[in-house]
Amino acid sequence: MGLTEKFVRQCRKPEGFFGRFVGRAMNKGHAKVRRWGLGHVSGEPCAIILDVGCGGGAALRDMASIFPGARLHGVDYSHDMVSLARKVNKSLIDKGRLEISHGSVSALPFPDISFDLVTAFEACYFWPDLVQDLREIRRVLRPGGTLLLVNEVYENDMFRDRNKRWAAWADMQIHSPAGYRDLLTAAGYGDIEIHEVIARNWVAAVGRKLESPS
């Protein structure tokens, strides 16, 4: 197994010494796509935010600056990533602005209608039942709340060979822009926006929990 394949396989659930290395590498390597994605929601008023699949914790650190008055929560199903994210964000935790928990997107450890914004960066490829997991996120969103999904891999002919290898190595589900729209619609979201940077294979999907039942 080559180093690139080993790295990509770890992205699904980083664990152990190499997994912690991967987590730190993703904190740095995904910075540009992460900040591009957050640009689509940065003007929204958010008092409480959840990052699902928070990995090494850099997205939480970014959002603490973008939303200076917000309280933040992170959740990840890798114990090693929970530990790393807590270490990376120790000052925010010490200030009482941030909590990071171990848990799964399929059964989020939060009550209904808890968050104004839920984000997921480089994470939804790996969710076991994407429509049902999106519904679980919708459960914890407040009416009018926003979901932001950001990935740097999506269906596009320019990247077909690379994406096919990565999908096989890490058992990733890769979707087209239209596929994201269909999934969000099926999960009950409205006001859906899909943004792309085609040359970089970046995609951001935004959906909102409608004020009235869908």
Index terms:
alpha/beta, 40% helix, 23% strand
Structure in words:
The protein is built from nine helices and seven strands, in the order αααβαβααββαβααββ. It is 40% helix and 23% strand. The radius of gyration is 16 Å and the shape is globular. The model has no long low-confidence stretch (mean pLDDT 94). The chain has a seven-stranded mixed sheet, with helices on both faces. It has one domain: Vaccinia Virus protein VP39 (Rossmann fold, 3-Layer(aba) Sandwich), CATH 3.40.50. With 214 residues, it is an alpha/beta fold. β6 and β7 form a beta hairpin.
Radius of gyration: 16 Å
- What is the CATH C level class, in words? Alpha Beta
Q: Please state the second-level CATH architecture.
A: 3-Layer(aba) Sandwich
Q: Helix-strand pattern, N to C?
A: HHHEHEHHEEHEHHEE
Provide the domain count: 1
- Count of extended strands: 7
- What fraction, in percent, of the residue positions are helical? 40-55%
